[in-house]
Amino acid sequence: MATVVIVHAPEDTLPARALAEKIRQAKLDVVLEKTGDEFKEAFKGVAVAVALWSPRSIGQQQMSDDVTYAKGKTKIIHALMQNAKAPPPFTTEPAIDLTGWRGEDEFAPWRQLAKEVTSKAGVANLPPPTPRPPSGFFQPGAPPAGAAQQAAPAQQRSAPQQQQRPAQQPQRAAPPPRSAPAPRPAPQARQYEATAEPKKGGGMMVVAVITFIVVAALGGGGYWFWNQQQGAQAASAAWENIDPNDASAIRAFIATNPPPAAKAQAEEALRNLESTSWDAAQEAGDIATYEAFLRQFPESEHAIEANGQIQSIRVREQDEANAATATTTDTTTATTVAPDATGAPVPLTPPPAQQPAPEQQPVQQPTP
Q: Domains (ranges, CATH) in the chain?
C-alpha cells in the first residue's frame, strides 16, 4: 500500500487529521503528526507528500525545513487553507487552495488534490461524488416519474382499436346532390345606410372602461407600494429590538424572511459578529472563549481551527501540570531532614570533622 505523508504545523493537527481521513478513501496509508527522527523515518518508501500551509505555519522555520526535506525525498503537493500563501522558496510552485472546504466530496479543489495524490501514488482515482437526490418539488414542464412508461402501453393498446374501427363501420351511401339555392333579392340602399350609421354612446362606454382600468391599476399599485412600505417599517422596527451581539437572535430574524434591505443588513451584522468574536477568541487564547465562539458559530470556517486550538491548550496545560508536579517532588527530596538524638530534625549533611587538640609539652623547672 502506497504511503502519503502530510507535513503540517503542530497547530494544524486537527485539519491534518480531517484531510488524512479523506485521503484514506483512496486506499492509501497516511502518516502525520511526526517530528524529529520519526519524521525522517516516515519518508522511507513514501509515494507522495502533502504540505499543508495555514496562516499559522507560513511563518515557522521548522515547517519550511520539513517541507524542504520532504521535497528532497519524494514528490510534494502544496495545499493551502484559510487564504494562506506558501512562503518562499515555495511561492512559485503549484498549490491547491482548500479555503472554504468542509469535507464535501464534490468540492472542486478537493477533487483536484485527490487526483494529484492518487496519480503520483500510482493508485486508482476516487470515484465521482454521489449525486444529490432531487428535491422532490414540482418542476414545470417535467413529466412525473413513470408517466412516460404508463403512456406508452396505453398508446399501444389504443392503436389496434383505432385500426379496427374503420373496418367495423359500414359504408354509408353518398348523399344526393343538393340543388343550387335561389338567388336572394338585393337589399335596399336604406338598409345599408342604417347599418353604416354608428351607434351613439359606444365611444363613451369605451372611454369609461379604459378610465376604470387605469384607476384600478393605479390604486392597486399604490396599495402594493403602501404595503411594501409598511412591511419595511415593521422589519426596521423589529431589527432595532435585536441584540447585535446575539447570533441566535440575528438568525431568528433572518428566518422570518424580512424585506431584502433588512435581510441584507442582518446578514452583514452576523458576518461582522463572527469576525469580531473570532478576533476576541484569538486574543484571549483560552478554552472558554474558543468554546463560546463554537457555540455561536458552529458552521464557521474557523471551526476547525478553534477545535485545534482547544486541543493544543489542553495538551499544553497537561504538560505544565506534569512539569510542576515533578519540580515539587525534587524540592521535597532535597530538603528531607532526619531527627537527631534529642528528636529535633537536623539536615542530612554530615557535620565537619573535629580537629584533634595539640599535645601539651611539660613545663621544665629552672635548675637552682
A: 3-121 (3.40.50.10140), 247-327 (no CATH)
